[in-house]
Amino acid sequence: MAIDREQLLHVAHLARLELRDEEVERVNAQLNDILEAVSKVSQLDLADVPPTSHPHDVVNVWAEDEPQPCLTPEEALANAPDRDGDYFRVPPAGS
Q1: Whole-prediction pTM value?
Q2: Rounded to 5 degrees, what are φ and ψ at 18?
Q3: Which pLDDT does position 95 carry in this prediction?
Q4: pLDDT of 58-76, one tens digit each?
């Protein structure tokens, strides 16, 4: 499956990417190389290979949650650019 120039420009637009003409040709060639490499996986016999999301066993590496003292409102708002009492002041939506 190859991607043509129009499809590339459409995806770039959706991703909010601005590509110059010389970039379009280079990115198009690189993207088609990637798609060709990935398509080779479909040629493999993977019937006996279980689905995996990670090549290694993944275990929870997070520490146990332990209750900790909370920040005071004064500490939490110490670097706020604008505040109203114990609240952050933010510009109205659409500003």
Answers
A1: 0.48
A2: -105, 115
A3: 67
A4: 787 788 889 999 999 999 9
Domain boundaries, the chain: 5-43
- Classify 84 as helix, strand or coil: strand
Report phi then psi at 87, rounded to 5.
Answer: -125, 150
Best CA proximity match to 24, nearest among 10, 39, 38: 10
CATH 1.10.20 at 5-43, yes or no: yes
Q: Are 21 and 27 in contact (CB under 8 A)?
A: no
Residue 7, amino acid: Q
Residue 21 burial (CB count, 10 A):
6
Q: Which two tokens stand for residue 59?
A: 């275990």
Write phi, then psi, for 88 (nearest 5 degrees). -75, 140
